[in-house]
Design goal:
Layout: H1 12-15, H2 23-42, H3 45-53, H4 62-71, E1 76-81, E2 84-85, E3 89-90, H5 97-107, E4 111-115, H6 125-133, E5 139-142, H7 148-156, E6 161-165, H8 171-183, E7 187-192, H9 195-202, E8 208-212, H10 224-229, E9 238-242, H11 248-256, E10 261-264, H12 266-269, H13 274-281
Parallel strand pairs: 1-4, 1-10, 4-5, 5-6, 6-7, 7-8, 8-9, 9-10
Antiparallel strand pairs: 2-3
Length: about 280
């Protein structure tokens, strides 16, 4: 009989109270936990761990790709793929992850980010696999990762890096998930929005700090968030600005204050040609 291991039994309210999380985020976290609990009865933690450890291809080096862009004084664009978002709705009716990924690579992106969350972003694990197979770029799995089972699953589907949202995880959960990822040689992008979350992230041994310009509680986006928090990040960390970046001028402004990476999706995917939009953002067109 296959051994089953049920992930953490913490409820979404153990992560944040309902007053602290907007309904959409609370629903995603709750749904994600239920999905993980169900899927772990089909493939146990022990089994998914073994599968992850058996993956033969080494991670492509997400952090390394951004460091190389920084060394070349180039923009480290993490070009995102997603069919939809809760705030914007459907972004690409004829969503083709492989084709979009190839266009991003040709435009000069350093890395890819792929949404795999299904309920609000219409994503899937297959989207990540298709994008990664179509390019040589390292890939971030962008999802609501709250359990070790998901970390090991991320490796089995080819993720080179995972996103951890500091605001929905306790310090203990963050450290545990980072440790599991490191054991698989995957990079970790710790996402923060304010100084308190940043201080928590800096206490973790992870090099990538993502500053989300979107407040997940109000859904208001303001790139001044990156401007305010960047000086508080030690120089040995790599800063990634996320959300709300639309122009090359904004990229230049944030690069000048020490930002290395830019995670951009919506402004690119709203265009008929996301690859050309990426070129414009990078100042190549």
């Amino acid at each position: 009989m296959t051994e089953t291991t049920t992930p953490s039994t913490a409820t979404p309210s153990d992560i944040k109270t309902s007053d602290e999380l907007p309904d959409v985020l609370a629903r995603i976290c709750a749904r994600t936990r239920l999905e993980v609990e169900h899927r772990s009865t089909l493939v146990s933690l022990k089994e998914i761990t073994a599968r992850a450890q058996d993956v033969k291809e080494a991670p492509r080096g997400f952090c390394r790709a951004l460091k190389e862009k920084s060394a070349d004084r180039s923009v480290g664009l993490i070009a995102e793929l997603k069919k939809a978002s809760p705030s914007a709705g459907i972004l690409q009716e004829n969503y083709n992850p492989a084709a979009i990924a190839q266009a991003y690579e040709q435009a000069g992106a350093a890395c890819l980010s792929v949404l795999t969350e299904s309920s609000c972003f219409h994503g899937s694990n297959e989207d990540l696999q298709a994008a990664r197979a179509a390019t040589s770029l390292p890939v971030l799995r962008k999802d609501f990762i709250i359990d070790p089972w998901q970390v090991y699953e991320s490796r089995t589907i080819g993720a080179d890096c995972i996103l951890l949202i500091v605001g929905i995880l306790s310090d203990e959960e963050l450290q545990e998930l980072v440790d599991h990822a490191k054991g698989l040689e995957m990079d970790v992008l710790l996402e923060v929005h304010d100084e308190e979350e940043l201080n928590r992230a800096l206490a973790i041994d992870a090099f990538l700090i993502g500053i989300n310009n979107r407040n997940l509680r109000t859904l208001i986006t303001d790139i001044e968030t990156t401007v305010v928090l960047t000086p508080l990040v030690p120089p040995d960390r790599i800063i990634v600005s996320e959300s709300g970046i639309k122009t090359h001028a904004e990229v230049t402004r944030l690069t000048d204050i020490g930002v290395t990476g830019f995670l951009v999706g919506e402004s690119l995917l709203r265009q008929p040609d996301p690859g050309q939009a990426a070129r414009v953002l990078l100042g190549r067109a």
